[in-house]
Records
---
Amino acid sequence: MKESLPEREIVARVEAALYSSGRPMSLEELVKATGLNSKEKIKKILLDLTKKINEVFYALELKELQDGNYVFQLKSDYGPLIRKFAKQPLLQSSALKTLSYVVYEQPITSKRLVQIRGSQAYSHVKYLEQLGFIEHESVGRLKVYKTTKKFQDYFGISDLNIIKNSITLKP
């Protein structure tokens, strides 16, 4: 794409990327989303958008995070208020617990997961694979699970070691 796109189209592409991603996005990702090659131009658009959004919306915000990523989100004050109206979470807590064991112990065998989480782990890993958060490799009759790049992108994780060091697991 050319840098001759109308300004309105460039802004619309940044908005669309931030809204649809549902996660923090890096400046590089936003540059790709617009098809431009100018980080400076996207940074200026982000500053203008941040100002406009934060002036117009009361419960939503565009925010630059400490790691330099940008996120379009609900302000934290409104989380408890709308929680009862929000859709069911993508992951039920039981599947999330199974996922946390995969994250912490990866690579982890299906046998080990079942020892820790019980037989419901089979349905959890099936669902987590369908979502693309984990993948397996067959080693003999065992399956060995690990997380995927999609998992890291979805949860905004750049370094799994930081997560592993901060998890306290309880079966």
Note: Residues 26 and 71 are 9 Å apart (CA to CA).
---
Amino acid sequence: MTNGALRILVVDDDNNQLELVERTLRADGFEVMTCSSPIGVTNQIVSFVPRIVLVDVNIPALSGDQLIGISKKWAPDGTLFVLYSASDESKLRWLAREVGADGYISKSVTGPNLAAKLRSFAERR
């Protein structure tokens, strides 16, 4: 890790959302890698070794929940997978349990609150 920064891989098919999250987290001291397609995510997990993979639920071709199932097989021990969506919180909670995600964050959570939630996940596990 660079300077002990928390590493986050953000997977979202919305480039505007990726840019916003990346800029927000970098400003808060995170080391961030982004991916706009599910293709190659496992390679990025293996090479970047993120502490948390923040995955959008609604990605065409391979949804976030399916991506987590595949990626967990390749991820180093201790990698956390967090669903990230504008979906209803009860749906997110249910989906996170169903796919074995380590948690979920609503896309309504932004800025310092997003950074705080991610740090909280990293510290708990």
Note: Residues 111-124 form the longest helix (14 residues).
